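Aim 2 progress update. The chain analyzed this quarter is reproduced below.
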Amino acid sequence: MDKLMITAALVGAEVSPEDTPYLPLSPREIADEAQRVYEAGAAIVHLHMRDQAGNSSQNRTLFAEAISYIKAETDLIVQVSTGGAVGMTAKERLQPVTLSPEMASLSTGSVNFGVEVFSNPLPMVRAFAKACREYHVKPEIEVFDSGMVTTALSLVKEGLLTEPLHFNFVLGVPGGMAATAKNLLFLLDLIPVGSTWTVSAIGRHQLPMNTLGILLGGHVRTGLEDNIFYTKGVLAQGNVPLVKRLVNIAQELGRPLASVAEARVLLGLVH
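Predicted structure tokens:
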């Protein structure tokens, strides 16, 4: 097995300070949290931003500020979100890609997202893939359902994505694929040989699916974006406890952690 890459999704778009007081909000707070998860063992941070009112924002300046702090203080791989929040325009969502971060999320299909719809029509997906190529950004293909793998493979044929691909299976979203071992194994059968993959899961599904990902030789994403609880009814006191728990599980299972430099090699970020 490859060494384990841990991604920390620090803040997301949906969680509010009313849900948990441990949510970082300003660029400075997000960068401080990034440094803490880096020291705990994460190699990648997945970034959303919040405006002064605490609302989700894809503002380029906010991302630039946070990334400048993170790069000055850590060696972390920065992965920006192009998902933003439900209802944002394509132009809004693409802003952080123009900063040429090492990675960006790329959702390759639409999905019911609770009572809302996370809309990613194919022309928009193509435009986002082209932007990633233009700004030399490695896409992480966000998969909420199996058809999103099929679409990603069609984009390879169109020349908009280049193998080896990196996938993130986001399971347990209400409206998307359920967070089950059977579904994860099914998705793994769909992706090309040589791809890298990460598994994320929402709420109470986070820990069991992360553990399964470690056992299967994949990589894992944790963090307050996906789950605010450490155990049932007990809030995680920030992202660090969630990262540290996965480090401990990996150690118990004999799976060494990838350093940031090793993660860059695994993801093809070093040329």
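The two ends are 22 Å apart (CA to CA). The chain has a mean pLDDT of 97. These observations will guide the mutagenesis experiments scheduled for the next reporting period.
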